[in-house]
Structures are given as structure tokens and as C-alpha cells.
Amino acid sequence: MAETGLPPGWEVRTSKSKGLPYYFNTASLESRWDSPEGTDPEKLKVFMASYHSSKADTSSQGSGGGDAIRAAHLLVKHEGSRRPSSWRENKITRSKDEAMEIIKEYERRIKAGETSLAELATTESDCTSARKGGDLGFFKKGDMQREFEDAAFALQPGEISGVVETASGLHLIER
């Protein structure tokens, strides 16, 4: 099997309910969405890109139904986030103000046409959806945090939100 970059005893599995990869420790039976401490982020990036990236496969999801939408996001966490760690950093120590400066610069670059949300999300998002260009797939009302959901459902297809704040951190959302 390819080198995952995960510490011994950890492996990547796929959630049956969400269809997303997560991390599982075969010894302790611990499971988590964020990579465990001791992960080599560069090796993990290569592994996830090779084995767990989505090529926009919607065949099993159809259109998501009439009340579901599909969106992608770029997440910048800060020390006050619900879980201040990510696949990129085991412990996030930036302040909320620093996170706001970072995401505002990402927003500027996207709106100026220098890059796309998907391109930036792949390398910069603190969410595990980064490996899918930030793609969260289809979701309905009630599936996401209220602030995120309200912003996502208010967008027209192809639109990108301004900065949206949730307990998880700061987001840019593209429908």
C-alpha cells in the first residue's frame, strides 16, 4: 500500500454515511475527521490526491433532489474554532483577526480572477474537503451549520459568498 504519511496504527477509511475519507486508529479504535498528531502533511496530501480525490462523480447522487444544493468552500480556522486543527496543521494558533486577513486575501484573489476557489481550497483550506477542491457534494437544509447553510442556499449557482463565520471558522462558499 502507498505511504499515507499517517503515524503507525492509523489508516484512511471512508464514511458510509457521508462518503468522505476519515482517519481510523486500528489499535485504539479512535476515528476522526482531522489527521492525527504526527502526520506528515506532504505525504498525506499526495496519498489523498491519488486515492481519495473526487472527479465530480455525481452518478450515484443524481441531481441531489429538488431541495438539495451542491457547494464547495474554503475554510480558514483560528484558535477559537470548534476544532483548531486540520490536515494542514495539528494545532492552529492564528487569531481570528489573522484568519480574517488570510481569507480576505483569498477572496480578493478569487474575485480578481487570479485563481479559483477550488484551486485555493486544494492547498489552503483547513477542511478535509480540500482534496476535492473544497467540494462538499449535495446537502439539504439541516445538514450544515446554520450560518453556512443560510449563506449557501442564498447563492445562485456559480456565485461565491463573502466571508461566512461559523463555529468551525471562516468560509468562502461557492455554489
Describe this structure in words.
Residues 54-65 have low confidence and may be disordered. This protein starts with 9 loop residues before the first strand and ends with a strand. Helix content is 25%, strand content 21%. The protein folds into two domains: 10-51, Ubiquitin Ligase Nedd4, Chain: W (Single Sheet), CATH 2.20.70.10; 68-174, Chitinase A, domain 3, CATH 3.10.50. The radius of gyration is 16 Å and the shape is globular. The chain contains four helices and seven strands. It is α+β, with helices and mostly antiparallel strands and 175 residues long. Strands 5-4-7-6 form a four-stranded antiparallel β-sheet, with helices on both faces. The chain has a three-stranded antiparallel β-sheet with strand order 1-2-3, with no helix packed on it. The protein has helices at 41-51, 96-111, 117-124, 146-154, and strands at 10-14, 21-25, 31-32, 68-76, 135-140, 164-166, 169-174.
Features:
alpha+beta; three-stranded antiparallel beta sheet; 175 residues; Ubiquitin Ligase Nedd4, Chain: W; four-stranded antiparallel beta sheet; Chitinase A, domain 3
Helix and strand layout, with pairings?
Elements: E1 10-14, E2 21-25, E3 31-32, H1 41-51, E4 68-76, H2 96-111, H3 117-124, E5 135-140, H4 146-154, E6 164-166, E7 169-174
